[in-house]
Specification:
Layout (H helix, E strand, L loop, with lengths): L2 H10 L1 H7 L1 H4 L3 H23 L4 H14 L11 H36 L7 H15 L3 H12 L3 H25 L4 H8 L4 H37 L5 H10 L3 H30 L8
Helix pairs in contact: 6-7, 6-9, 6-11, 7-9, 8-9, 9-11, 10-11, 11-12, 11-13, 12-13
Amino acid sequence: MSRTSLRAVALADMNGLRTRHTAEFAVPRERVIAIAIVAAMIGLFAFALYRFEFSLTRIINGIGNLGSFVPLMFPPSPGSWPRAWLFLHALAETVAIAFLGTLLAAILAFPLGFLAARNTTINRVVQFMSRRMLDSVRGVDALIWALIWINVVGLGPFAGVLAIMSSDIGAFGKLFSEAIEAADNKPVEGVTSSGGSHLQQVRFGVLPQVLPVIAGQILYYFESNTRSSTIIGIVGAGGIGLHLSEMIRTLEWPSVSFIICLILVTVAVIDAVSGRIRRAIVGPVPQDAH
């Protein structure tokens, strides 16, 4: 019997098939729940578009306004040599904020990662408390931490360093703990079979496995924090962000484009350098991963 004929016979006997195989034709409960979740998400998406007054007309008009002042940004120019040096000094300050903030966060999060990891923690209570603390710190954005630290220690790059450090402790602690939990248990078993203590199991069984991963994560965050340091500088936490905000406020568009070019070049250089260092530490990416 051909496939067409078989389908015609099945359609003609559809009621009988439903009666004889009720379970196979019933809609699974999981599928009903999945359809309900998708429908709820689509409804929420449509409500959000309506609630926030989404409008293609406003987007098109905004792009038109963008085209009116973008030509004013060319050619990029600082205006004078003293101002160019001022911008370069502020850019170096931004990179320093990112470097110090990332390094301090990594140092503080390193022991917290071991306490939050299931296979290296002291007990379940400590693990639970460590994870909840990291979740709480991680839930506050760097910009909010900058506003908090500015009110605590005043304006300037010191507040920026504290803001980057505070926002990254939670993220580093979570990433470090996940890397520790994913470590192979065989080296730990080897240390245990030779009479090693719990501390020696962590030192010789876990630490050599996770250090390259942790180093790669720190380098990636340093690159990302260079951009974050620019943003928090706008609210007074030091660096090039403050000058960028002032140039936008006074409509000095050639200086704005000059600062943006400086930031882009700096991020590209840091990305290239940190990428080489990550590959040197972690090793080349296997071809199968592509």
